[in-house]
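Q: Could you write out the predicted structure for this multi-component system? I'm mainly interested in how the pieces pack against one another.
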Amino acid sequence: MLTIVGELINTSRPAVKEAVINRNKDAIIDLAIRQAEAGATYIDVNCGNMINNEEETMEWLVNTIQSAVEVPLCIDSPSAAALDVGLGLSRYGRPMINSISDEEERFDTVLPLIKKYNAKIVVLCMDSTGMPVTADDRMKVVRQLHKKLNQAGVADDDMYFDPLVKPISSVGTAGIEVLETIRKIKSDYPNVHFMCGLSNISYGLPNRAILNRLFVVQTMTLGMDGYVLDPTNNKTMADIVTAKALLGKDNYCGGYIKAHRSGLLG
Amino acid sequence: MLTIVGELINTSRPAVKEAVINRNKDAIIDLAIRQAEAGATYIDVNCGNMINNEEETMEWLVNTIQSAVEVPLCIDSPSAAALDVGLGLSRYGRPMINSISDEEERFDTVLPLIKKYNAKIVVLCMDSTGMPVTADDRMKVVRQLHKKLNQAGVADDDMYFDPLVKPISSVGTAGIEVLETIRKIKSDYPNVHFMCGLSNISYGLPNRAILNRLFVVQTMTLGMDGYVLDPTNNKTMADIVTAKALLGKDNYCGGYIKAHRSGLLG
């Protein structure tokens, strides 16, 4: 089972910011419906750059999205107050929080929200010492965060570890360190899940789409089972359907054949 | 370093068979040049279905190809006599034999040719009990063949293990058993190489090209370093160049950026 978090409702995208400022419900509903129909299992809600009225904006976005689709939400914000608003309004299934880390203030403000809303949690492999470089760097943070979350009563099945993808254009081993992190996490914590965004991997390089797409295939091969991405990108979704069939996670290739009949595979 | 064996000069392809029967040098030379220019590090020569005059055909093909390109050849035949002819005429670099297995007669007739021509060898994970199903089935054969080849003085660096790819349409785990075989071989024999054909993986399914291409990406992720494929297929080669960059095997993404500038990435 793959978790696909649709990333399009994010006010860092200029068109979304404009729609939000104008309280253009139709534009947001259109993004919600298109992502749900394309296979998003969660819809990300991020208005973190609306710093003057993030909580009010979060309320409007969550209500607008839920007026049109019944998909669970991934509430995504640097602000614990905005997370609290979004989570409190989430009506369909258990919500997800994006994200917790081992930075002290972040951990202490987000942990209570996990408990309060029985939320699933994206866990960034990062602490107050900064961004990790190697797989071993990441595993130190993973062990620490897993221990603290476990002690707080969060189940492994509710944790979605994000290994933090960095550009291969600056460090050539950035991709394989992520692959190695997935292998180590799966080996040490077989019941946790994964979540990652992709676009960082290709930062600074041309033809970014092919790098992002093949990095999905590579990480899936090692066992990654969650992505924050644009599910309306047919090429990405075709690659995911195909990779699942190749990995034996598609009974009788039924999903693959259905995707072929729908024209998704091109 | 990836080994790409260009597969197009094979008389099982009707157009090639016709060119061979008509001794159409230009057609064969065109295939040889196009494969070499597209990045083939070996050119496969297979006329195994010309059963009435395979040895004479092999001689003509090898001489024709070598009149145009200076790429080493992969001599591919069920017949030891035809292998002997092709290997004896190979002039550029060390030739490769496709293939040896642990079927008794095959092993005994091919081993002397490896020694006689100092050839590299594709090693099929197959014995007289038939085609393997699981990774463990394959590893039994791998251990047996590695031991026998090693005792005969064949270096690990000259062995190219072919895990034998089978269709996911008949057994859903066919792909992951191959991935697991690669992982086990790399763990137990870190200095050997790999070789595989791809098209079997997608047999019986629609849109076979996307399955074949993503299976290259998946197997490369586990460490496979050799493929028998059509190097003139730009999408396949674009995926390979991209996967190498993501796996940290492309210094400063130089090969990727070059492929972008050449238009290969689309």
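A: Regarding packing and overall arrangement: Chain A has a mean pLDDT of 97.
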